[in-house]
TrEMBL record:
Main EC class the enzyme belongs to: oxidoreductase
PANTHER family linked: 4-HYDROXYPHENYLPYRUVATE DIOXYGENASE
Signal peptide coordinates: none
Family note: Belongs to the 4HPPD family.
Keyword DNA-binding in record: no
Xref: InterPro entries: 4OHPhenylPyrv_dOase, 4OHPhenylPyrv_dOase_C, 4OHPhenylPyrv_dOase_N, Glyas_Bleomycin-R_OHBP_Dase, Glyas_Fos-R_dOase_dom, VOC_core
Gene: hppD
GO molecular function: 4-hydroxyphenylpyruvate dioxygenase activity
EC code(s) of this entry: 1.13.11.27
NCBIfam families for this protein: 4HPPD (TIGR01263)
PROSITE patterns in UniProt: VOC
Keywords: Dioxygenase, Iron, Metal-binding, Oxidoreductase, Repeat
Entry protein name: 4-hydroxyphenylpyruvate dioxygenase
Cofactor(s) the record lists: Fe cation
């Protein structure tokens, strides 16, 4: 099989993404599903609980350039909550907020604040995946079942992962509706500014989980054994420590590398790490950041900054360091262009990547976004960890949480 034969999902094709583009954006590789005990196509949706999903949906449409495509709520017979389905390229976000004061989502939001509750995975065979997961000790939260409407049938199940996070498993091969049964198509009246690139991001590169001290290897094994994911990278010791704080990270990925889950745990340091802060304010393990793959990080950052999005700042010293300049070599724009926007750069044996991190998206210092533009590198910006963590520590200090 050549890369040109890579099977794209209908969702990717609808977003006009090609195999070569996905290889560059997210490091997509060829993979034989037949030999895989738990074949995963890709991330189906990132489901977030929001304190105000109505306004969050407007934020992601107006600021992050996403497109509202579907909706469920009281008007469609869903009395408990409202859910807005947004897309950007092949990325699908579902934002859910309570309507009924008695909704369990109210208590969930009180405990955790805004956050990711479900990293839903599109799979080829829900029943086979659940059987494999159960045999390897996973907790099955929802047994395989069909849901149907006039658009066809979706096969669904759900597995528990770290904290209260879940992986819904979705087989939508017999379904052509806008999301799931119960949702209706819906657009928004938002008029995009013609000078803003669209979309700002095309694919989900990775979703990071923060887990408890001493539990990283447990969750790595969980993804190895339950889902057949393989280990891509690990970062321990000096890679990932500053003067004050430390963490450890390992990355697991599915066969085709559409799904990459770095897993972080705090490590002993002189002061509290960003992972400790996350665990305190989220209340338990959870999803720390979502990395959005973009083909134009400079255009995206310009548009997002102009819309008021705040990014972690990078000191000028980062760009002026001769070691950085010799390490990164030539990238597609002059370093001054990166410096002006606070975009970080890292290079490894395969190529380079550009990345930038937002401040926390909501009120609590928990979930945030990364923008990443890959040029061959399949890494995660290891060369930037120290600069990144020192930047986060400055924010923690300002919050009184270092
Ligand atoms: Fe990341």
């Amino acid at each position: 099989m050549t890369l040109a034969d890579l099977r794209l999902t209908p969702h990717e094709r609808a977003a006009h993404l090609g195999a070569d583009q996905l290889r560059q954006l997210v490091g997509l590789v060829e993979h034989d599903d037949a030999a895989d005990p738990f074949p995963v196509v890709g991330v189906d949706a990132v489901v977030m609980v929001c304190g105000n999903a109505t306004q969050s949906a407007q934020y992601f449409v107006a600021i992050w350039g996403m497109t509202l495509v579907a909706y469920a709520g009281p008007e469609t017979g869903q009395r408990d909550h409202k859910s807005f389905v947004l897309e950007s390229g092949s990325v699908r976000f579902v934002l859910t907020g309570a309507v009924d004061p008695a909704s369990p989502l109210v208590e969930h939001h009180r405990r955790h604040g805004d956050g990711v509750v479900d990293l839903a995975l599109e799979v080829v065979d829900v029943d086979r995946c659940v059987a494999h997961a159960r045999a390897h000790g996973a907790t099955v939260l929802v047994e395989p079942h069909d849901e149907a409407d006039g658009h066809g049938v979706v096969r669904l199940a759900a597995l528990a992962t770290y904290g209260s996070t879940r992986h819904t498993l979705v087989d939508r091969s017999r379904y052509d509706g806008p999301y799931l049964p119960g949702f209706v198509p819906r657009g928004s009246g938002y008029v995009r500014r013609p000078d803003v690139p669209s979309p700002l991001f095309q694919a989900l590169d990775h979703a990071v989980g923060n887990v408890e001290t001493g539990r990283m290897d447990h969750w790595v094994r969980f993804y190895n054994e339950v889902m057949g994911f393989t280990n891509m990278a690990e970062f321990v010791g000096d890679d990932i420590a500053t003067e004050y704080s430390a963490l450890m990270s390992k990355v697991v990925a599915n066969g085709n590398h559409r799904v990459k889950f770095p897993l972080n745990e705090p490590a002993v340091g002189r002061r509290r790490s960003q992972i400790d802060e996350y665990l305190q304010f989220y209340g338990e393990p959870g999803c720390q950041h979502l990395a959005l793959a973009t083909a134009d990080i400079l255009g995206a950052v310009d548009a997002l900054r102009a819309a008021g999005v705040e990014f972690l700042d990078t000191p000028d010293a980062y760009y002026d360091d001769p070691a950085l300049r010799s390490r990164i070599g030539t990238v597609r724009v002059p370093v001054g262009e990166l410096k002006r926007r606070g975009v970080l750069v890292d290079r490894d044996e395969d190529g380079y990547l550009l990345q930038v991190f937002t401040k926390p998206l909501g009120d609590r210092p928990t979930v945030f976004f990364e923008l990443i533009e890959r040029h061959g590198s399949l890494g995660f910006g290891k060369g930037n960890f120290r600069a990144l963590f020192e930047s986060i520590e400055r924010e923690q200090e300002a919050r009184g949480n270092l």
